[in-house]
Amino acid sequence: MLGHAMTENDEQPTHPVVRGLKTVCRCNNIKYRTIERAIRDGAHTLTQVATRTDATTGHCGGSCTPDVQEMLVEHAPQRPLPSPGGGANAAAWWVRRK
Question: The pTM is what?
Answer without folding.
Answer: 0.65
